[in-house]
Design goal:
The complex is a heterodimer of chains A (175) and B (259). With 175 residues, chain A is an all-alpha fold. Helix content of chain A is 70%, strand content 0%. Chain A has two domains: 99 residues, Orthogonal Bundle (Rna Polymerase Sigma Factor, Chain: A), CATH 1.10.1740.10; 75 residues, Arc Repressor Mutant, subunit A (Orthogonal Bundle), CATH 1.10.10. Chain A contains eight helices and no strands. In chain A, helix 2 runs antiparallel to helix 3. Chain B is built from four helices and 19 strands. Classes of the chains: A mainly alpha (175), B mainly beta (259). Chains A and B meet through helix 1, helix 2, helix 3, helix 5 and helix 6 of A and helix 1, helix 2 and strand 2 of B.
Chain lengths: 175, 259
């Protein structure tokens, strides 16, 4: 944790609205971008990041100040997204919630022309989430395996196959 | 190609869009409406507080030891303490700073300390606030696993916990066997697991052996023997956080190769 984070959290626990606001302004954009990487969709990123941030700020009193704040927030957000994935598997969410072939819905969406984004979007969900978690959210493979409740080898092979598919996809686009 | 692709993937988050301003403000409103976070209740002994108060003064000795067991404090109006550890040349220092809820200058703040592995807090130092309610202590050498608490007007701050590094060393016992050993005086390491990891082609570290630490002949030394038959592996020892806590953080050895 940076010195500033510790001071802000201490301030928030003292009831300082300014500290809460400063902490929120610092981490909301980051949380939102993580959510965006996971969902690939602006509106769903809004919902997911909002859930995670509200949950984190409501639990600031229980936060262990000896630990860094950022990974804690990331873990809350990931747990939320995994919950959503499970709801999706149980049929409680529309099938396109984590769909990878989503179309950009505005100027601010990821650049549709970006071949890399298009290729990541085109991956099957199981491989895409491993790629996103590993490269965009900086999670090591063993943590991904634990998070998704799959063996280490499964997570590693999904990562490897996802990369191979991406490579193939990008090569095909160049041809 | 693969490494180029991986590099592109890793660099890509810099191009992510940012959240819409209206959503940012909407969520900010909801965050502001949350009830103020409350710290978990901390238990302190009334005896401890009385003993600490009576002891007073700067750098008092063991006579001022206070026992921490009972009682509790609330979050509002407590002093704040922060510890900054930094290197200056070959030495590592710790600097304690903080603030009290009052912005008065000249207020007395006591700093209590507890060495990891003991249950007693003792008064380490005291200081006075300057304008704004801020206080600071001169930096001191950092070499101990210590918990600091600031005390002002009978109220206690959160704990600032410092953990000294624990050194995990791979001691070769022949070509295929190593003893992973640690040295600590704060806590017993007997039975705590230590892990031997190998580096995969993708650069990840994966567990290949796990062993429990046993006490060695020298006081404070613990070791666990691991063996690897396969040649040419890139290895390291890893002491997970669950084994290192509460007095130390996770540690890894230098990298070595199996022969």
């Amino acid at each position: 944790m940076t010195f500033d984070d510790a001071a802000l959290i201490a301030g928030a626990r003292q009831g300082s609205a300014e500290a809460v606001d400063a902490l929120y302004r610092r981490y909301w954009p980051i949380a939102w971008q993580w959510a965006y990487a996971l969902t690939g969709h602006r509106q769903r990123a809004d919902d997911l990041a909002q859930d995670a941030v509200l949950s984190a700020f409501a639990s600031l009193g229980r936060f262990d100040v000896e630990r860094p704040f950022r990974p804690w927030l990331k873990r809350i957000l990931l747990n939320r997204s995994i919950d959503e994935l499970r709801r999706l598997r149980r049929g409680e969410l529309p099938v396109d919630w984590f769909d990878d072939r989503l179309r950009p819905n505005g100027e601010e969406e990821l650049r549709a022309s970006d071949e890399l984004v298009a290729a990541v979007r085109a991956l099957p969900p199981a491989r895409r989430i491993v790629i996103v978690l590993h490269y965009w959210l900086d999670l090591p493979v063993d943590e991904i395996a634990a998070l998704l409740s799959v063996p280490y080898g499964t997570a590693a092979s999904r990562l490897s196959r996802g990369l191979a598919e991406l490579r193939l996809c990008l090569e095909n686009e160049r041809v | 190609m693969s490494s180029d692709l991986e590099r592109r993937l890793k660099e890509f988050p810099a191009e992510f869009p940012r959240p819409a301003e209206r959503v940012t403000e909407r969520v900010a409103d909801q965050v502001r409406k949350l009830p103020p976070p409350r710290r978990p209740r901390r238990r302190w002994s009334t005896v401890a507080l009385v003993a600490a108060t009576l002891a007073g003064g700067t750098f008092v000795g063991l006579a001022s030891i206070a026992t921490a067991t009972d009682s509790s404090t609330s979050a509002v109006g407590d002093p704040v303490i922060s510890a900054r550890v930094y290197k200056d040349g070959p030495s590592t220092y710790v600097e304690l700073t903080g603030r009290i809820p009052s912005s008065d200058a000249g207020e007395r703040v006591q700093i209590l300390e507890r060495t990891c592995g003991t249950r007693e807090f003792r008064i380490a130092s005291d200081t006075q606030t300057v304008a704004g309610g801020f206080w600071s202590l001169a930096p001191v050498f950092f070499y101990d696993s210590v918990t600091y608490v600031a005390r002002w007007n009978g109220r206690l701050s959160d704990e600032a916990v410092l953990r000294a590094p624990i050194y995990l060393l791979p001691f070769p016992l022949g070509k295929k066997k190593w003893r992973l050993q640690v040295n600590t005086r704060y806590q017993t390491m007997t039975g705590r697991p230590v892990i031997l990891q190998r580096r995969t082609a993708s650069g990840d570290w994966v567990q290949i052996r796990r062993a429990k630490l046993r006490p060695l002949a020298t006081f404070g030394m613990y070791g666990a023997v691991v063996s690897v038959k396969q040649r040419g592996l890139t290895l390291r020892g890893f002491l997970p956080q669950s084994s290192a806590r509460p007095c130390h953080d996770a540690e890894v050895t230098m990298v070595f190769r199996s022969q």
